[in-house]
User: Fold this.
Amino acid sequence: MGMEIMRSRFVLNSDKKGRAGATLCLALLSLSSVSQAANWTIDPSLTVRETYTDNINLDSSNEESAFVTEFSPQVSVKGEGARLKLDFNYRLQNILRSNGDQGNNTNHQLQADALAELIENLFFLDVNGSMGQANNNATGRRSGDNISGSSNNINGSINRGDFWTAGFSPYITPRLNGYVDGEIRYRFNTVHSDGDNASNSDMHEQTVGLRSGTRFRRLTWSFNYSNREQKRDDTTAGANNDTQFRNTNGEVRFRLNKEFNAFIQVGNYQNDFIGDTGPNSQNNNGSYTTVGGAWAPSRRFSIEGGAGDRNSFVTVSVAPTVRTNWITTFRDSDVGTNTGETWNTVLSLRTRRTTWEAKYFEDTSTYQQTLLEQQIFGLVDLSGSLIIDPATGQPVLIILDVPTAVDEVFTRQRGEIGFTGNSAKSTINLRAYTEKRRYQESGNNQDVLGWNASWNWQMTARTNSVLSFRWQKTEGDDVVTAGVASTTNSDNTFKSVSLRLNRRIGPNANGNIEILRAEQSSDNTASSTFDYVENRITAGITVNF
Assistant:
């Protein structure tokens, strides 16, 4: 049950990570000063779970059973006013184990975002932060904690480490009397993670996006600049392990008539990191020019393309119905981070009871960047039902196929397909994905293939069940240290099945019971403990105050 208030204050007392979370919490809530009339909703809750597992250490040769008690207070704070929006979630997860190698521990889990309008229609401030746990090695052991829709972490720190992020981003949105519109932004994030393979990093990004205003009709223009730097607090073998991605581009477009327009694009890439994203030149820096045109005979179809020095592309957009959209881009470029022939496509189709989605993209990233994008909360609601993202219509799922924690730039090629179907009492979700990663310094590779499925059945007005399956196969080099080619590779297969029953037992309480079986097999001869089978049963209750 939420409590509507005008302002609130609370302090979290814990260890170093807890104090960092408390500091961020107070900083976010202090933004309430920009809105006198903001409404605050605070939802505190408490979750208590008891789990029995027959393999607490995820070991194939020395299986130990254990009872695990979880005691987790949580608070959710939401604020919204004319000039402020806040979404804050924090959970203090206490894990008590009766057996096993990990002992007892406490996990901090935080996800917080705030947007303040400091000067009306001109000056804004974003603030963000997160705390959580993630796998360290993509080809190592993984547990059922990654797929159960909760964050039990009952198996402890096996191939897992804590991380936390914090950042802020001031920006302005200039609008110069119909001549210029746009956004000028500075973004800072700091990322800290446990372990020795991935450095703590500070990320600085400056972006400028300007475009012609409403006074320009037949002739329009745009200018974009992006400079993203990652400053790491460690180096490998004395080398500078920082990264920089800088891109400048501009466009002038002339509308010939209602259906046709012509354009010219110029740009320049200046990237700096250890490694090479292509076979021809280090980091593929340099300038490009593209000349082309676009044809849009209707709102349902358009095609745009251009060719020129070091860069060519074609984009086709099709929308045969109001609920169907498909956009595909093919590019052949000699500059930038993803060179050669690359594809990007997004397809979405919605009917009254179904949602279909497919996408494929190629990009360049780092392990620290993926931590910034981790979803900590919002996976299931209190009844255990999957949360649906209103922006995509798709369920929010835990990302199982995270990259290895290492200080390298990697390129990836990722494809996904998905289906969601709804009836009066059931929701079915199906997902499949594939990803190829290429680490730029060491030359190590990883290939991931996986799928997951779930069936949510509303059995009665107060009871529902969730049947879930997940399977993933990871092949590739066992990346351990940045810049060092792996001498071993492995083929790991992870699969799990779970059944969860949820029961609303009062206006402010929900109970559940779940059985889960998780299994991993590996051909990695260096560590036989990559193979394991675990069975567990969990009973829990969540009370809202």
